Amino acid sequence: MKWGETGDMKSEPSASKKWIAGIVAASLLSAVSAVLGLLNWIILREAEQTIVVRSSISRWSWQAIDSFSFLLLGMAWLSFVLFVQHYLMKAPDVRSLWGRALCVIGAQTLLLFACRLAATALGPAGTGLSQTVILIAEGALGTGLSYAGIRLLKKAGHPNNGRELV
Question: Do 91 and 25 meet the contact criterion of CB atoms below 8 Å apart?
């Protein structure tokens, strides 16, 4: 029985519990993705500010660029949260749910890594050892989560054999 289907609850008492557990798991994983998306929003904004300061853009334009980027990143974040919620709810089984969630969270972690790497490269000289270790850990974690998600999608017999990246 898929999560979105309803069946005879008398003959399968555990099916409804599995269905409810799947919805709860998808919602919790969506919340984790939303929180990580908020962190990405902040880091993307800082990276944008670093790029604007380092570029030849007039100082008078900085406030407008910051305001519009804040607004656009906020709308992108909200759209992404709604998409991830829908995407995870449509997972046909538990393995697909975890595979999809790991792919999404891995992609978000890699985006966080890329933005922090760009901000570090363009930012003030002298990054501490702890920041470098955190940056390397983010890259490794994002890669590992994405790889694990793709492997789970392949094992789940996903229609496009795990080539699905969000």
Answer: no
